[in-house]
Amino acid sequence: MYKYPTSKLNKMATYCLTVARLQLALGQGARRMHVSAAFSAKAKVSMSRFETTSYVNYEKLQSNIDIVRKRLNRPLTLSEKIVYGHLDDPHNQDIDRGRTYLRLRPDRVAMQDATAQMAMLQFISSGLPRVAVPSTIHCDHLIEAATGGPEDLAKAKDVNLEVYNFLASAGAKYGVGFWKPGSGIIHQIILENYAYPGVLLIGTDSHTPNGGGLGSICIGVGGADAVDVMAGIPWELKCPNVIGVKLTGSLSGWTSPKDVILKVAGILTVKGGTGAIVEYHGPGVDSISCTGMATICNMGAEIGATTSVFPYNHRMKTYLEKTGRGDIAALSDEFSHLLVPDEGCVYDQVIELNLDELKPHINGPFTPDLCHPVSEIGAVAKKNDWPLEVKVGLIGSCTNSSYEDMGRAASLAKQALDKGLKCKAQFTVTPGSEQIRATIERDGYSKILEDVGGVVLANACGPCIGQWDRRDVKKGEKNTIVTSFNRNFTARNDANPATHAFVTSPEIVVAMAIAGTLDFDPETDYLTSASGEKFMLEPPCGDELPARDFDPGQDTYQQPPPDGSSLRVDVNPQSNRLQLLEPFDRWNGGDLEDLQVLIKVKGKCTTDHISAAGPWLKFRGHLDNISNNMLIGAVNIDNDGINSIKNQLTGELGGVPDVARHYKANGLSWVVVGDDNYGEGSSREHAALEPRHLGGLAIIVKSFARIHETNLKKQGMLPLTFSSPDDYDKIRPDSKISIKGLKGFTPGTPLTAVVKHRDGSTDSLQLNHTFNETQIEWFQAGSALNRMKAMQ
What we know:
- The protein contains 27 helices and 30 strands.
- The strands form seven sheets. It has a seven-stranded mixed sheet, with helices on both faces.
- α12 packs parallel to α13 (290-299) and α24 (686-693) crosses α25.
């Protein structure tokens, strides 16, 4: 019923080999071969296991899909096709959305430099000689925004020299490509070079789903998951539900792709996508550019989605051709039936958006799902006493730094300049990649944005992740910033909890930066020119892609040698930036008795609260040092204090990491109690490693965010949830908890918590878990890495 012609499948290997030979014959350099369609990379180094998995084998994808479709006897969604098409054992895999765990074979791994440090340290600990799948490291997180691009980059190279050398040398030794500082943000580099329709890619950053704009299934994970894949072990993922978002109409005027995800975030909230892939479809898709689709998928991380994806179309084909991958575009056309949903496929939930009716939106402050039409934000801000003056407007980041984004922003800046105006607010511009930076500089966009008052920052994450040396306000001073970023948790951008951060499109950021106020609606409000004339900004416009080819800029890629076995990777024992890992202790075989409640967390607790970024990023390769930031942003329900808890052994108040260290030194293991959606936000596994390192054994909450729950399991922790959410109220900050039932620990069987209070009373609570048999083995071994080493 769902069979397709197979005559063209056998053309693929010949086609790939022909493309590769042509490229070599034409003398295209190592970089072009690297960034070109990874299809040709197979032929370039034939018979190498490392490279032979560097592309989606459409014949294998077709075969797996046919097997699964026959078993399930139903049409498949696009995300099901790509995910099930990468099953390790499609004949026997138990497939049940939202219930079973899938064993998958991803095509590629990507790591940003902050998480790559711990991932590579874990890979080194595994004892394996070389990665089993194509993998890359991207230097984007450690560059602090302060003065401007060149100056900030030079400083970062000096300050982070030890870390960069470690990552470069580890990459060379173990076969991992290395994108040097200044290359750009990991997700933009992936979109330009590695994402393509049908690929399954995992990345150690929560916004890896950006690649869904190019028809890819790209999923954010912790470093331990990346190590599994790099080690050639099947990767586990709970079989995702599928949320369909049907788009009708078309984008126009001031409405942008960002408004789609801002609206969806308002509908689903920060946890509404948990355990699901969001799959966009419908006639409205074709009105969105490829990079616009990437923007939508990128911010899908803020609704807790496993990932998001769009079906293959002509916008993707054009982008592939413009980024030097015409060979992949041709193959994607040929196998397009694999890259779109089957007719009649069924979604677990469907949301419909009419793009003709969608208006510009702005979300915030303090959470990315607090959704407002731009036309209403002024009134809402006044009602809530949010500062109206926009202190800084910031555009760029991995979410909105495409050529189209910059062109549309520049079109507004040019209108203001023509009327003699500059931005009233401070204004920064973050190019997403060296290719974008070089191209917008060549085409004049950079100059326009600078002339209107903008400072062009380095090709890096910068203020979006808190790498911002902000000096225009004091800490604690109430103020408003407007960004085109994806995340706006308390103190995330500038370490100031009083900063009200709003996320919106680059176009709205520019308009508000020019006006200098949050209550400016460019669709209805006027500006005053330097001559006193009232005028309105015309809707933004900009080319989807450059009329000329992209300018690649400087070559910032380091290809790993064919054999790095003779190379050394040194870690100085006295370093405060890097530290070799010691294995965690195995489970002792019994129940966990009398765990002290370290902190009972009140309200939202993101990975930013658990393991802050910003100035702490420099310690991401040193577990003991980075552990000094554990839970320092969480609110203690006992006193509403931040980083202030009672040491139950001494009776004194102390910082959370300090008390945890004191408990560990005195042989007292502990537990954290938390609220809903605990661990939302970043993929950073440090938020799981730090509690484990400082003596924690379990985290008990109302509900978890997906990545954080998995990260905790990987490190031998017990992530558990209250069977009844009201049981959260039964635990007191000074309680001790025993976790019973571990000798019979099995999938689907709840555990029991016996809670002892200081007054002698007790409560018995049922705790649920999502462990499968393999994950229980991780717990018993002390960590997934311990189990991997034991299996060698």
